Amino acid sequence: MPELAHYLAAATRDHTRRSYASAVRHFEEGWGGFLPATADAVARYLAAYAPSLSLNTLKLRLAALAQWHRDQGFPDPTKAPLVRQVLKGIGTLHPAREHRARPLPIAELAQLDAALVAAITRATTDADHVGLLRATRDRALILIGFWRAFRSDELSRLCVEDIVVTPGEGMTLYLHRTKTAHDGLGAEFKAPALSRLCPVSAYRDWIDLAALTTGPVFRRIGPGGHLGTAALHPNSLVPLLRRRLRAAGIATPERYSGHSLRRGFATWANGHDWDVKDLMEYVGWKDAGSAMRYIERADGYGRYRIEQALAQDASADAARAASESD
Fold it and tell me: Is 137 exposed, middle or buried (0-12, 13-18, 19+ CB in 10 A)?
């Protein structure tokens, strides 16, 4: 049985497992529910927290309760019509507004990279080994995160032994698991060597400086320059990015998050006429809807297109008026 539990746990991502465990505790300890639960109890639980929790949070709580019942061999009460009707009513009275990360534009990526290169040069001149390590690590992390459109947890799980660099061409990165790969086979990604803002050279600079041959690529760096053995926690990547944005003089760094790199690349690619199918294949999206949620169109307000159409209308009206006066 311990072996069975071990493999069941491995089937669910660590972050999801922690979130589900927290949700089940909230149902039992925070609200006072009993497991296994009835559909009526789950419906009353949803109604109790509808005014204070977002619709997405309530859906996560339902998913956690459903998972618990399936794992324990009990009927799933969250599938009952009563629960679904209550959830639909909550969605009507408390609609969720989707908050999306601000995409990092290529111009700001270049500004950020220039600041990191300057920090590396300064640290080298001042013999500041800790500063040199951190700036070199952060530059590689940000450039790989942007050009590969990786999530924070994917960046934290990159390992040196799973990356192969082909000089002058690019790098191949293997992840043992991803959000969209459910077959247990993992996924392979490629990143190109570029003439500027190059993720490959930034990665090589970091690996060579830190003398890494195995284990996590991105790690904690202690005050004395001691390099940790564990990977950076995914939650630490957002504060890291915002600190670097602030140091680079980029306004409102708090508006950016871990998905800003991913959305930034998708928006850049869309602006350069990447086919949606090609973009989906490159990033790893399984459906076009997922891709479109990440793309910020250059003419987001439609102003350019509308003004262009108004100008055409004005020209047509002028031509019509001229012909009528003849």
Answer: buried
Angstrom distance (rounded) from CA 87 to CA 41? 13
Tell me which residue has tokens 């929790």: 53
Residue type at 94 in one-letter notation: H
Which architecture characterizes domain 2-93 according to CATH?
A: Orthogonal Bundle (1.10)
pLDDT, tens digit (0-9, with 9 covering 90-100), for 147-203: 999 989 999 999 999 999 998 899 999 998 766 555 556 889 999 999 999 999 999
pTM of the model: 0.70
At residue 3, what is the residue type? Answer: E
Distance CA(35)–CA(39), nearest Å, equals 11
C-beta contacts of 132-136 below 8 A and 24+ residues apart: 132/209, 133/209, 133/210, 133/221, 133/225, 133/227, 134/221, 136/202, 136/205, 136/206, 136/209, 136/210
The one-character DSSP state at 95 is P
CATH domain 106-294 topology: hpI Integrase; Chain A (1.10.443)
